[in-house]
Structures are given as C-alpha cells and as structure tokens.
Specification:
heterodimer; A: alpha+beta; Uridine Diphospho-n-acetylenolpyruvylglucosamine Reductase, domain 2; Uridine Diphospho-n-acetylenolpyruvylglucosamine Reductase, domain 3; Enolase-like, domain 1; 3 domains; five-stranded antiparallel β-sheet; four-stranded antiparallel β-sheet; 12 helices; globular; B: alpha+beta; Ubiquitin-like (UB roll); DNA polymerase, domain 1; five-stranded mixed β-sheet; 5 strands
Chain lengths: 288, 153
C-alpha cells in the first residue's frame, strides 16, 4: 500500500530540520523509516511534510566522552551499533541486542533513535537503555533538554518528545559491571524482555547496586524495584536466593497487558524466567 | 519542497534519471516504472524478504523504502546479479541443492546471500541462519536453502 502524498525535504543542519518540521510540528523527522513508513503505508500516520535527517552530519557518531559516558548519535543504525568497537568493548550486551533487532534489512537502515521515538512497546532497545540509566537528549527550537530513558515513553506509541523536537543523542554512564539482556519472541518483536545491570564491590564479591527493567509487558519498561533492593549489598553467592525470595511479589506488582503475545500471567511468568537467565549470564562471568 | 522530485541513481550499474512522486516506494519504481519484475512484493511490511534489493551493497526492504532515498546511490536487484548467459554461483547452488520450489522468495534469498557472502565469504552455520532469519520461504522448509549456502561457505 502507498502512503498518502507528502512533501519531502532533506536538510543539512539540525536548525533547518527543526524549522522545516515547524513550530506546530506539522512535519515529521525521518531517517530509516522502518517504523514510520510502515505506519504511513497503513495510513495510521500521515504527515504533510517528511523531513529527512540523513543529511545532517554528526548524528551518527559513537564516542566515550570526558565524563566516562558513552554517547550514541540517535541516527546510528542497529548495524552500526552492533559493529562498533567501543560498544563491543564496553557494552557487549548492547552490541548483541542491536545485532538481533528484527532482521538484517531493518538493521541496515533502522536507527536506535527512531526505534525509541516510535514508542512501540514490543521493542528491544528501550529496556536496555533504561537499565543503562541512559538519558535522551532532545533538541527543539527553544533549546536542549535531557530526559531519563525511564520517563521517555509515556504511552503506547507515545513519548515525551514534542513533534518539533529532535532526539539527537543517547548518553549513558560506561557500565562498571555486568550488563545482560534476554528476550522471548515469536516473530520479529520481543514478546517480553528483561535487562539487568549490576556493579560489584569488595573485590567483585558484593553487589553494590543492581538495575533490572522488564519490557514489553505494558507500554514502557518497568523496574523490578523489590528485586533490585534485595540484591543490593548481598554477596554474589547469595544472588540466586535473593532473587528467588523477592521475585514472586515483584512480578505480581508489574503492570501487565494481555495482548497477542500472550496472557498477563504467561507474560509475567516469562519475565521471571528471563530474569533468572539474566542472572545465570551475569554469574557466568564476563560482561556479556 | 515538493511532492515530486528528480532522482538519479545507479541501477545494476546503469545510470537512471527519473522524476518520482515523493511517496513512491522503491519496489514500485523498480517493478512498474522501470519494468524489472524480479523483485517481488509479498508481506509489504519488511518481514518476508521477497522484495530484498541491495542499497550501496546492504540488503534493504524495497517495499518500505522511498524511491527518493536512493538518489545518488547504487541499487542492485536480482537482474543485476544474474549473468547475461546463465546463472551466478549462488543461483547455481540453489538449483543444485533444490533450494527453491515455487521460486517466489528466491530473488530475495539470492540478494540476501549475495550480501552475506560479500560481508563474510566463509560464514559459519550460525551466521548463515542468523543472517537469513528475515527471509521467509513457505515451500522448502529452509534445509535445502541452508545446504545451498553452506556449499558456498
């Protein structure tokens, strides 16, 4: 099916792209189109003006900044992140995640920024970026603001980004400990996914802090706060016990939608299994 | 800004200059305006891989790519990887191993395997399965396609 007609423009700078989208946001930013064009073809989204940002320099870099944070340009494709040496070295779980998004054709052109801005509940990157405590940098005509990844998605296909704001950069602290990610899926999108990051102290014997996010259960990734609390300060040899004790109540507290990926109880069960597998990966050593 | 734009690109090594409505999809440009029918439209949602073409060497879904996006770039279709007389070594391997039945998905598979073998001339079994995960075939059950690719690895 064809999208309805629209104006198309490709502009070389962020300022020009922001102006072209317009103060009232009648235009839309466009890069890979792997989500947006699908929705436009199905006629669930229409825009008068498509503003292509692929000609803007500087939106597809990956670097370690002076504050020991990793910065990823929002226009980086999944393939670009998967193959990046810096990401492979410091966050191999993110590299592996990006190497497994959808299929090879989507990874060739689809971008991490587009994935986030679409706000699709069944997506891989948002869960991982929330667990990495990422902040998303939005640039608008009025200036620049940062939003924590945890707060970015506000509803199904809805984010805090205003239509005339461009997501430019994703920034997160360089992980100091294990980062893991597990998902279960039938088709191209995850039915349920779980990411976990922890940092260790006392010669890698004590869990200093832990972050766990469960994605795709409702409109955005959720923290398993009770399990995070149970892990903090515990010896890693007690990690399995700590998780087993805290998990049932933590799973019950999650907001879970039944959808075509499964019923609420089933998806809650999957989240528990996937967390256990994250734990196996983390305890198995390494930082994958 | 306009609803029509002139684009120029390389299609299978041949220079093309054409004006397109901006909402034209690449698969329609290739099949209907230019008349190369080897590229197939099937799922129309980037899942099945039947419409796979190469854009600057990387596999993409032409069903969900705007024609204006190929401006000043190189597009390769199944016609571009098929020798004038006979078949490519990838196509021959598919024939030899029975890696096709109805043939509808085959151009997409050939394009994906072309890109795979260029990126990794000797892929492992896992790499073959992972790379081709996004191409669907409803006839073969994939084993014979896998064997065809494996014979080239």
């Amino acid at each position: 099916m064809l999208p309805l007609p629209f104006e198309y423009t490709r502009l070389p700078t962020i300022d020009e792209a922001l102006a072209a989208v317009g103060e009232d946001g009648e235009g839309m930013f466009y890069s890979g189109g792997t989500e947006l064009l699908l929705a436009m073809k199905m006629r669930v989204i229409h825009t008068e003006r498509l503003v292509d940002i692929k000609g803007i320099a500087g939106l597809d870099g990956i670097m370690l900044n002076d504050a020991d944070e990793i910065e990823i340009g929002a226009r980086c494709t999944h393939n670009r992140i998967a193959g990046d040496a810096l990401i492979q070295e410091h966050v191999p779980a993110l590299s592996a995640l990006c190497a497994d998004v959808a299929n090879i054709r989507v990874r060739s052109v689809g971008t991490i920024g587009g994935n986030l801005c679409f706000g699709e509940p069944h997506a891989d990157p948002p869960t991982m970026l929330a667990v990495l405590d990422a902040r998303l940098v939005l640039q608008g005509l009025g200036g620049i603001r940062s939003v924590p990844a945890d707060e970015f998605i506000q509803g199904e296909l809805e984010t805090v980004r205003a239509p005339n704001e461009l997501l430019t950069t994703i920034v997160f602290p360089r992980p100091s400990g294990s980062v893991t990610y597990r998902r279960f899926k039938h088709g191209e999108r995850p039915s349920v996914n779980v990411a976990m990051a922890w940092s260790l102290a006392e010669r890698n014997t004590i869990i200093a802090s832990a972050r766990i996010r469960v994605g795709a259960l409702s409109f955005r990734p959720q923290a398993l706060t009770a399990v995070e609390d149970a892990l903090r300060g515990r010896s890693i040899v007690e990690a399995r016990c700590a998780v087993a004790e805290a998990l049932p109540a933590a799973l019950d507290a999650l907001d879970v939608n039944a959808d075509r990926h499964g019923g609420a109880d089933y998806k809650r069960h999957l989240a528990g299994v996937l967390l256990q597998r994250n734990l196996d990966d983390a305890l198995g050593g390494g930082r994958s | 800004m306009t609803h029509h734009l002139p684009i120029s690109f390389s299609l299978n090594g041949e220079a093309i200059a054409i004006e397109v409505p901006t909402h034209t999809l690449l698969v329609d440009l290739i099949r209907d305006r230019i008349g190369l029918k080897g590229t197939k439209r099937s799922c129309d949602m980037e899942v099945c891989g039947a419409c796979t073409v190469l854009l600057d060497g990387a596999p993409i879904s032409s069903c969900t790519t705007l024609a204006v996006d190929v401006d000043r770039r190189e597009v390769t279709t199944i016609e571009g990887v098929t020798p004038a007389d006979g078949l490519s070594r990838i196509q021959e391997a598919f024939v030899r191993h029975g890696g096709l039945q109805c043939g509808f998905c085959t151009p997409g598979f050939i394009m994906a395997v072309t890109a795979l073998l260029k990126a990794k001339p000797h892929p492992t079994d896992d790499e073959i399965r992972h790379y081709l995960h996004g191409n669907l075939c409803r006839c073969t059950g994939y084993i014979k396609i896998f064997e065809a690719v494996k014979s080239l690895a």
